[in-house]
């Protein structure tokens, strides 16, 4: 039986932060499902950095079908979760089903990967207190205000949690996450 991993996301997620983990984890032999507030086609975005611009820019990205609605997720069916960034975590942090799933993985000490704005969902779920997490650097305050420790790194590992700043960290982030997954299955 193939182990399953759930990516928790929605509209306006960063394309590269969804597709890189999706394909990298499939390549490693996992069955990966996209979970969203509803089972429907999602619209992702592309964030890029422009010289002399104070923050990132946003353009329409790829579309992709969600495999399962978050309300229909039984977290026990999955060995790990991934929480990409983009703007999706800004509204997913208000979704009780998303928070339920996140809490389950922290209660069970199962592997969790989060990047960019993904830690906003972890903060809202109440699981970052006393934990070290990376995030998009401007979110340091969001990690710290809930009692977490912000670390500006590309592959920050704190027990079951592997976090990073944004899509430029995808390679180091997923490498570290695969190591945590390997350790969890040993």
UniProtKB/TrEMBL annotation:
Domain DJ-1/PfpI, chain residue ranges per copy: 4-179
Pfam families: DJ-1_PfpI (PF01965)
Family to which this protein belongs: Belongs to the peptidase C56 family.
Protein name per UniProt: DJ-1/PfpI family protein
Lineage: Bacteria, Bacillati, Actinomycetota, Actinomycetes, Micrococcales
